[in-house]
## 1
Amino acid sequence: MLYPALRSSLLTMSTTTTVLPSSSIPLFTTVAAFRQWRQAARKENKSVGFVPTMGALHDGHMSLVRKSLADNDLTVLSIFVNPAQFAPHEDLTTYPRTLPRDLEVLSAESVSVPSTTDSIIRTTSAVFLPTVQEMYPSGIDQNVAAQQGTFIEVKGYSAQMEGKTRPSFFRGVATVVTKLFNAVEPDNAYFGQKDIQQCLIIKRLARDILLSHPSPHNIHIVPTARDPASNLALSSRNAYLSADGRNAAPALYRALRVAEQAWTDGLTKSVCIQRAAEVIRETASAAANGDLEIRLDYIEFNDSDSLEPLGDVRCAEPNSNSPPLLLSGAMWIGKTRLIDNIVLGSLESLR
Ligand SMILES: Nc1ncnc2c1ncn2[C@@H]1O[C@H](COP(=O)(O)OP(=O)(O)OP(=O)(O)O)[C@@H](O)[C@H]1O
Ligand SMILES: CC(C)(CO)[C@@H](O)C(=O)[O-]
Ligand code: BAL
C-alpha cells in the first residue's frame, strides 16, 4: 500500500479535469500527478511493471496484467487511444471505449505470489488515463504532413509487414510509447505477441535511445491469448464483427497454421503463402453468400532481426544462431482489419 494520505490526495488531484468512473484503483489523468505516485513507489523501493493499452480490455490484455502482477511489486496500466497511430481514414472515432467496464475488469484481477511467510495477493496499483492534450502538448494532427512537434521514427523497421498498409502507424506507436515510458519509468513493460512487429520495434527503440526504464531486455513479449473454441486471437477490434464476421475471423490463424505446416514440410515460401491464401479464399467465397466481403491483406515470412521478407526459399536446417522467423498476416472482414502471427522459434530469443 502506498502512503494512504498521498494516495487519496492524488486521487482527488487526478479527477479534477475529467469526470471519471469510480474505481478502487487510483486513477491519474496527468503526468504530474502520476509522477508523484511513481516517486513514492521509488522511495518505497517497489518494482513497477507497466502494461500500455488502448482500453476495451479483454483477456489478452489481462494476460499481460497477470504477468506484470506476478513479476513486479506494483503494476500500472495505461489506457490511451493514441490519435497519432491512426491514419485519417482509420477508426479513431469509432474505436471501442469502455472505461467503466475496463476498470471493473481490472479491479477484479488479482495474482497470488508466494512470500517468505505466506502469500501476497497483488492487484493493479494505478491506472494512467492521460488526455490527448497531456500526451501531445504541441497538439496532434492525424495527417503526418500537418504535424508539428516531436515524433519518434524507428527507421528501417516500420515499412514492412503492418507498415505496408499502415505507413505512419509505427511512427505514432513509437512516439506515444516513448512518452508513456518517460511518464511511467517502469522497471518492466509488457506487450502482446499479437502485435509482434510493435514488440520488436519497441525493443529496438529502447536499444537505440539507450533507454533505462525499461531497459530493452525488460520489455517482455507475452504470447497471444486466443478464444479457446476457435483460436481467434483476442483483439479489441473483434467487437466490430457481426456474427458472420466472427465465424469467418478464425480463418486467419488457420491460414497461418497451414503456411507453417507447408514450411515445415519443406515447401518454398511462395507455395506456403499460396496455400494460406487458399484458406482465406475458401472462407471468403463461403461468406460471400451472406454478403460479407472478406479479403486477405497479406501473409508473409520475415526475418525477426531485420524484418525483411524472406526470399522464395525453403526451410533451412535450424541453426542455433539464426533468429526466429515471423509468419504473419492480416485480413479484412468487411471494414474490420485483423492481424495475427506465428513465431517460428522461441519468443524468448526475439531481440
Ligand atoms: N490476444 C492478445 N494476446 C496477448 N496480448 C494482446 C492480445 N491482444 C492485444 N494484446 C496486447 O495488449 C496491448 C494493448 O493492445 P490494444 O489495447 O491495442 O488491444 P488490441 O486488442 O491489440 O486492439 P486492436 O484490436 O486495436 O489491435 C498490446 O501490447 C497488445 O499486443
Ligand atoms: C502500445 C499501444 C498502447 C500504443 O498506443 C498500442 O499500439 C497497443 O495497444 O498495442
Ligand atoms: N494493438 C495495435 C493497436 C492498433 O492497431 O492501433
## 2
Amino acid sequence: MTQKVAVVGAGKIGEALLSGMIRGGWSPSRLLASARRPERAEKLRVRYGVECVSASEAAKAADTLIITVKPQDMAGVMDELAADVPAGRLVISGAAGIPTTFFEERLTAGTPVVRVMTNTPALVDQGMSVLSAGRDAGETHLARAEEIFGGVGKTLRVPESQQDAATALSGSGPAYLFYLVEAMTDAGILLGLPRDKAHELIVQATIGAATMLRDSGEHPVTLRENVTSPAGTTINAIRELENHGVRAALLAAIEAARDRSRELASGRG
Ligand SMILES: NC(=O)C1=CN([C@@H]2O[C@H](COP(=O)(O)OP(=O)(O)OC[C@H]3O[C@@H](n4cnc5c(N)ncnc54)[C@H](OP(=O)(O)O)[C@@H]3O)[C@@H](O)[C@H]2O)C=CC1
Ligand SMILES: O=C(O)[C@@H]1CCC=N1
C-alpha cells in the first residue's frame, strides 16, 4: 500500500487526481501537492486540506511522485527535483509526449518510472488512463499507478510505443466530443431552437449514446444503423457528413494530435 503520494504540478489534471484520491478515501495527510504560484497552493490547501510544498520537498517525502506539469515545463521541474528523489521511489509522469527515458536519464539509475496518459473526465471519476512501464518499472509499480488512476476511472496498460496514439485518442478525445456537441448546438440554433433547449437535447443524446456504446455490447455501426431508417431523416444527415469528409477529417485530426505528441517528445515546445 502506498504511503505518501505527491503531485507536482497540481493544475487541472493534478487537481483531478488529488480530488479523486480524496473522494476515494485517501486521507489528505497522505497527500502532498506542489504548485508554482502561491495562490494556487493556497487554494489547494483550503479546498482539500493537503499540504503544499516545493517540488524538491515533494520529491524527498513521497513514496510515489506524480508529475503533471506541462511537457514544456518538464525539463525545468526535473532540474529542480531529480537529485532529491531517493533511490527506489516510484515516479509517474502524466505528461503528453515525454518518454520514460527522459526521466530515467535524469533520475538515479534504477528508479522505476511509469508513464500515464489520463483525461479530464477523471474529474467525474470517468477518466481513461493509459499506462506504460519504463525500463525499471515492474508489476508492483504498474499496480501502484493503477491503484491511484483507477480511483478516477478506467485504466489500460499499453506498450509505450502506443502512448502517442492513446494521447491523441483518449487524452485529447474529450475535446473532440465537446467540439461536436458545440457544433450540434449551433445546428439546433440554425433550426430555430433556443440555445438552452438545444444544449439539453444534445447533452442527453450524448449521454444516452455513450451509455449504449458502453453497455449494449453492440458495434457502433449497428447502433448507428438502428437509428438510420430507410428514406428517413438520419440518412440525409449521414450523406452530408460523408460529403463534407467528416470521417477523413477525424482521421487527419487524430493523426495530427499523435504527431504533436511525438514532437513534444523531441523537446519541440
Ligand atoms: N488537460 C488535459 O486534458 C490533459 C493534460 N495532460 C497532461 O497533464 C499535464 C498537465 O496539464 P494540465 O493539468 O492541463 O495543465 P495545467 O497548466 O492546468 O497544470 C500544470 C500545473 O503545473 C504547475 N507547475 C509548473 N511548473 C511547476 C513547478 N516547477 N513546480 C510545481 N508546479 C509547477 C503549474 O502551475 P501554475 O498554474 O502556477 O503555472 C500548473 O498548475 C500536461 O503534461 C498535459 O500534457 C494529460 C491528459 C489530459
Ligand atoms: O492538449 C494536450 O496537449 C493535452 C494532452 C492530452 C490532452 N490535453
## 3
Amino acid sequence: MSWTDMAVNGRVLVVDDAMENIQILHGALQDEHEVLFAMDGPRALEIARTQQPDLILLDAVMPGMDGYAVCKELLAAPETSDIPVIFVTALKSPEDETRALGAGAADFISKPVNAAVVRARVRTQLTVKRQRDALRALILTDALTGVANRRAFDERLDAEWRRCGRAGLPVALILVDIDHFKLYNDHYGHQAGDATLVQFATAMRRAAARTQDLVARYGGEEFAILLPQLDGRGATGVAHRLMTELEQMAIPHAASPTASRLTASMGIACMVPGEHSIPADLIQVADALLYQAKAEGRNRYKLGGADCAA
Ligand SMILES: Nc1nc2c(ncn2[C@@H]2O[C@H](COP(=O)(O)OP(=O)(O)OP(=O)(O)O)[C@@H](O)[C@H]2O)c(=O)[nH]1
C-alpha cells in the first residue's frame, strides 16, 4: 500500500460555528474519511484530546474561542500537538494567511471552499502525517525486540513524571536485567541470545499490559518497565508476573551458575514526583536495588523508593 492510499483513510475533525459549513465539508470528505465535527473551540479541544483525529479543519473566526486560540492550545498539549491543522476561513488577505501559518497551521483554505481542493489538501496533510508518524515510531522503537527504545523511555518518563507530579500520583519503575547473559551468549551463541531477548521482551509486555505501561530496552540486556500511577504493591505485582512468565517459558540456561533456566533480577522504585525530585532519582533508586538483587543471588526483585510501601 502506498503512502497516498493509506492517507485516503483517516479521521478528520471539522470545526466551524455554522452547521451549513460543516455540512459542506462533511459532503466533500465523507467518502474517503471518517468525519467528526465540533461547533466551538472548547468542544473541538475535547474531541481532539479524546478521539485523536488525524487532521483538523478549523474555522478561524468563531464566537468565544477563535481558531487561533484553539490552534495554540492544541500545540501546547503533548497529546494534541502532533495533529495537523488546516485553517478554513473567509479571511483572505496575506496577513490572515500568515497569521494562521504563524499560529502553527499546516495549511490554509479560503471560503467558499471548493470540494476538490479540500480533498486534495486533506490528502496531502494526511500523507505527511502518516509519514511523520511512521518515522517517529521507527525512531522510538528498538529494532531487535520491537519494544520502546531508550529515547522513547526517556521521553515518556519525563512526561509521566510531570503528569503524575501534577496529579499527586506515584510513578513506579522496574529495572530488569537478565542474569548471566554473557554466559548465555557464550554458551548458545549471539544469535540465540538475540532470539531470547525477543522472547524476554514478550514476557515483559505480558506482565505489564495496561495501556499506560511502557516496556523499554534500556541497555543491551537491561530493560525498564515504566508504570505510571502504580504504587509499590502494583509494581511488585508486575515483577511477580514477570517471574511467573519466565518460569513458565523455562528457557534453558545450561551455563548459569545460579539456575538451570533463564532468570532475571529487578530493582523496583516508586515515587510521587515532588518539587525537589527529578526522574533521575527514580532511576537511581531502581538501579541500586537491581544491584542489590544481583548481589543477593539473582532471580529476585528488591523494592524501595520514597513512596514504595507495598
Ligand atoms: N545476543 C545479544 N547479546 C547482547 C545484546 N546486547 C548486550 N548483549 C550481551 O549481554 C551481556 C551482558 O553481560 P554482563 O553485563 O556482563 O552481565 P551478565 O552476564 O548478564 O551478568 P549479570 O548481569 O551480573 O547477571 C554481554 O555479553 C553483551 O554482549 C544483544 O543485542 N544481543
## 4
Amino acid sequence: MKIFSAAQIREADAFTIAHEPVSSTDLMGRAAGKCADWLMEHYPPSHPFYIFCGKGNNGGDGLVIAQKLLDEGYVVTVCLLEYGSKASEDYIYYYRRLQQQYAGRIREIADVTGFPELPPSAVIVDAIFGTGLNKPIEGWLAGVIHKINDQHPRHTIVAIDMPSGLKADTSSRNTPVIQAHHTLSFEFYKLAFLLPENAAVAGQVHILPIGLSPEYITHTSTRYHLTDLDMMRTIYMPRTPFSHKGTYGHALLIAGSRGKMGAAVLSAKACIRVGAGLLSCHIPDCGYDIMQISEPCAMCITDELPDHSAHFHEQADARYKTIGIGPGLGTATATASSLEKLLATYKRPMVIDADALNILSVYPSLLYQVPAGSILTPHPKEFERLFGPSANDVERLELLSKQAVRLQLYILLKGRYTAIGCPDGAVYFNATGNPGMATGGSGDVLTGILTGLLAQDYSPKAAVLLGAWIHGYAGDLAAAHLSQEAMSAADIISNLGSAFMECFY
Ligand SMILES: NC(=O)C1=CN([C@@H]2O[C@H](COP(=O)(O)OP(=O)(O)OC[C@H]3O[C@@H](n4cnc5c(N)ncnc54)[C@H](O)[C@@H]3O)[C@@H](O)[C@H]2O)[C@@H](O)CC1
Ligand SMILES: [K+]
C-alpha cells in the first residue's frame, strides 16, 4: 500500500472530485458516513457521544457524524471549538443542516473552561484537525487537547482521520496531540502512524476506504509504502517440480563465538527453514558440537581459533550463493580484519547483521566495500552507530533512505514497523510482527531468513521484503499460540512453516 503525503491526499481528493465526479460536500458525506457506521457498529446508543469539531473539513466530518448518530437516536453533544478561523465551505453546509434539526445539541466552546463534564461511558470523537494541520496546536486549543487526553483512562477517544495535532508526514515530537484509542483514517495509512515516536497517539488504526480515485492512486508514486499480503504473493516463488538442492543455493553463515553460539544456531535453523538448498556455517572451534547437534541439516567449517572466527575470508568464495554474517560473531580485531578481506573479494549481495555491523561502524570506510544490493539489518542503536543520530523519527527515515541510495544497499531498520530503505530511495514498512519479538535472538532469526532467501535466488529487494514479512508473520503466529511474553526467538522459527502455509499455499 502506498503511503501518501498530506499534499498528495489533497490532490487525490481534488482529482476524485473532478473525475468521478463527486461534489466535495458529497465526498465528505461519504467519508464521514463511513466513520459514523463504524462508530454505530462498535458502540450502542447507550454511549453518549461528545464530538469535538474544528472549523476545517475535519470538523465538517464531525458534523456529518453527529447528524448521522442523532438521526439514529444516539445522545450526542456537538462541541464546536470557536478559535476564530474561517470555517470551510463544506463545514458551513453541514453546520446549517445540523443547526436546523438539532440546534439544542450544539455547544460553542471558546476557551478551556467551556470543556464539558463527561458522564460515564461517554465516547469522545476528535474531529478538531486532520491532514490540514499546518502548525502546532497552541493556546487554549492546546488546553482542550490536554483536557481530552486527561479523559483517556475513563473514556474512549476516537480520532477522525488523524489524532488532532499529529502531522501526517513531519515530526510532531513535543507538541500537543490527541491520544486516541482508535483512529478512523481515510483510504491510506499516514506516515505518522508508523513512527515509534507516535506510539502513544493513534491507538488502533482502522483504514476506511472512501472511494478516492483508483486512477490517481495507481499513477501517483510515493517514497513510502506499507507491505501487505498481496504484495508478498507477487514476490513469493513456489518451488518447481524438477528442482534439486542445487536449485536453492548454497549459503554460508559466518556467526557465533564462545558464549554466543546460540545466535549462530538460531540463524542456521531459520536459514534452513525458509528453504536454502545447502547451508555451511563457519564457526569457531568451540561451536562445533553445539552446531552439529543442534542443526544436523547444516554443515560446519571450524575456524583455526577456538573462541571466535578470524579466517572466514579464506572460505568465502564463489561456491556460495550468498553469505550471512554477524550474529554472535564478536568484534575482535582479527575478526574485523577477516571481514575486511572478505569484503575485498566476495562481491555478491550478502546479509550483514549484529557484530558485523558493529565492526563496520568502527571502520566506516568498509561500508563502501559492501557489495551493492547487500542487506544491512541494524536495530536503532546499531543504525545510530553506523550513520549518526537523528533529531526525530522522520529525520531518521530520511537518513535511512539517503544512505541506502548513497551506498546502493538495502538497509532494514528494525522496529514495530521495520523500515526498509532501498537503493532507489523508496522506503517500505513491514506490516507484520508484535512486541513478543522484542526478545534476544529474533534478529539472528531474521538474518538466517534473509540469507536463506538470497540463496534461493530471490532478488535482494524480494528477499528483504518477503523476509521481514514472513519473520513477523511467524512471530504473530507464535504470539497467538503462546502469548507475546512466553514466545522466544526459537518459536518464530517453529512457526515459519505455518506462516508459509497461511500466506502462500
Ligand atoms: N480525501 C480525504 O481524505 C478526505 C478528507 N476529508 C477531511 O478533511 C480533512 C482535511 O481538511 P482541511 O484541509 O480543511 O484541514 P483540517 O480540517 O485538518 O484543518 C484545517 C483548518 O485548520 C486551520 N489550522 C491548521 N492548523 C491549525 C492550528 N494548529 N491551530 C489552529 N488552526 C489550525 C487551518 O488554517 C484550516 O482552517 C481530513 O483530515 C479529513 O478529515 C473528508 O472530509 C473528505 C475526504
Ligand atoms: K482529528
